[in-house]
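Office hours follow-up: a student asked to see two folded examples consecutively, so here they are.
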Amino acid sequence: MGMTRETLCQTYERCTPEEKRKAIEQSIQERLLKVQHGEVVSVEKLIHLAQKLNLTDRQKLVAALLDTANQEVNSRLECK
């Protein structure tokens, strides 16, 4: 089921801080920590790499993380 960005944002805003954090952490675990050939990268290393990004790329990263979190929250709410 497709949802507009506005609907996703509203859905996300209704979640508790714990639900928001859990969705973000799970998305990071599932999508960012596993890289090629099954190698696992620490969150600290990802943060260090993110700090090296220019402002435009950091903004893209933040937008992608928020979008991933919104999708995760939306999929969990649909299951309830």
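And the second, which I mentioned at the end of office hours:
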Amino acid sequence: MAKRQKELEAQKKAQQKELERRRKLAAKGGSRPASRGERSSGGKGPLGLFSLKGLALFVGIGYLYVAQRELLLTLTLKPVLFVLRTVWVLAIKPVVRKLLSSKGGGGGELPGGY
């Protein structure tokens, strides 16, 4: 019986220590320990605005804008135009064709022959 009571007292002391530790941590302002991917500076890089990868991307795009503007426009416009053309062919054009054919117009042909 005495052994069991000692175990309960030891368990109670351990719980009180843990509770006190949590109170101190909460008083500091940190309610949880930092996770592995989280930095103490809030995930910011050397300038406080960008991470290193974001800074490298920003500098690279800035260089392309200043020195190689045509290349930058080529790299950005080709994918955008491809997506717009694909959306037109797969989504918008069939709906427009269906609307034209349902009105009984001249066959529902759209220009371009696609």
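Two things to take away from it. The chain is about 70% helix and 0% strand. Residues 68-114 form one domain.
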